[in-house]
Amino acid sequence: MDPTPEQEQALLGHCAHARYVWNLAVEQHSFWSRYRGGAPGYNEQSCQLTEARAEFGWLRAGSQTVQQQAMRDFAQAMSNFFAGTHRRPTWRRQGVHEGFRQVGVRPHQVVRLSRKRGAVPVPKCGWVRFRLSRPVPEGVRSYRVTRDRAGRWHVAFAHVPPPVPGPGDGSVVGVDRGVTVSAALSTGDLLKVPGLTPGETRRLRLLARKLGRARRGSHRRARLKAALARLRARQSDRRKNWVEQTSMMLARQFDAIGVEDLNIAGMTRSPKGGIERPGRNVAAKAGLNRGILAGGWGMLVERLGHKAPGRVFKIDPAGTSQRCSACRVRDREARESQARFRCRSCGFACNADVNAARDIAHETRLVIARELGLVCTAAGPAVAARGRSGLPGRTNREPQPVLLS
């Protein structure tokens, strides 16, 4: 978005009101317990908001729809929490959680001004211009305005795109995620998330040292935090762009995508420990955690699930880096280094990450065969697991080779 200075102040006011209403709802739900009865729902909180707007002029000066949508978002967040799909809603902080949602958008309210510019009406702000990074789909009815830590404003229109169709040839690919190589494919391709350049990395470290010496609350500290936020936003944008391009490529070129079922939250847990049981190799583990998070492991699988629903298979990660993809022999000593794998049983050698990706692809084919009702035998090709049922004309059918390729 490209708001004017006056519009930016109004947008910040909307963010503050939405955050204030959200935090009040969090406080109400944290106060109530099972001994005091149920916490107030959306209807009761809506009546309380009407009374608060009538009493306080600074709250009445804001947009009622923005404040009501904040309460609706909180009610939906609590429903997701009780359904077990999301965590419990927490507090929102200034400078971190800046944003609000607007509903009831009509088709004529999203205007295209030129090839790269558009405009959308925002309550109490008028028409705000934004850059058309992609065409706005037809039939959008809501949008969300957010502000990142680098000070950039974004508008996102709610729309569920159709799934990306596969090639239809039964192709299977295995994806092994790592720190040195972000994603290794069973086809032999090694993909790496683009990060900061060496010059940008040096500048990031320099700014971090200056920030540690800056006095809290000073204008110099604010300028340093803004400069750091811009560098980190650049790194995050490159990672997100890589994830979008990689997930789109995999969804278009393969019918089945196998990934390891990794517990990323557990793998990146803080290594510091406690006073009684302090952690070991804290600095090394912290660096590993940063490498895992910088690789976008979870984001890649999440976007694959959105673009190729039903075609992403999560494989047990046990032994994928130690098992030979040629002879299927598992040997801990086969991985000679981070990038070198040599099987001591059959002599097969290749890149260690590619070998793991091929093993994941093999396991994915087995999962597909089990889901299709096929069993693989050592005597020959896979046959139908149902067997002969006694009905006339019923015979075992050979599976389509394209599904197992």
Model description:
This protein is an alpha+beta fold. Helix content is 41%, strand content 15%. The chain has eleven helices and 15 strands. The strands form five sheets. It has a five-stranded mixed beta sheet with strand order 9-8-7-10-11. It has a three-stranded antiparallel beta sheet with strand order 1-5-6. A three-stranded antiparallel beta sheet has the order 2-3-4, with no helix packed on it. Strand 14 (374-375) and strand 15 form a beta hairpin.
SSE blueprint and pairings:
Layout: H1 5-31, H2 42-55, H3 57-60, H4 64-83, E1 98-103, E2 111-112, E3 117-122, E4 126-131, E5 142-147, E6 153-157, E7 172-177, E8 183-185, E9 190-191, H5 198-213, H6 219-253, E10 256-260, H7 264-267, H8 282-294, H9 297-307, E11 312-315, E12 340-342, E13 349-351, H10 352-371, E14 374-375, E15 383-384, H11 401-404
Parallel strand pairs: 7-10, 10-11
Antiparallel strand pairs: 1-5, 2-3, 3-4, 5-6, 7-8, 8-9, 12-13, 14-15
Helix pairs in contact: 1-4, 2-4, 5-6, 6-9
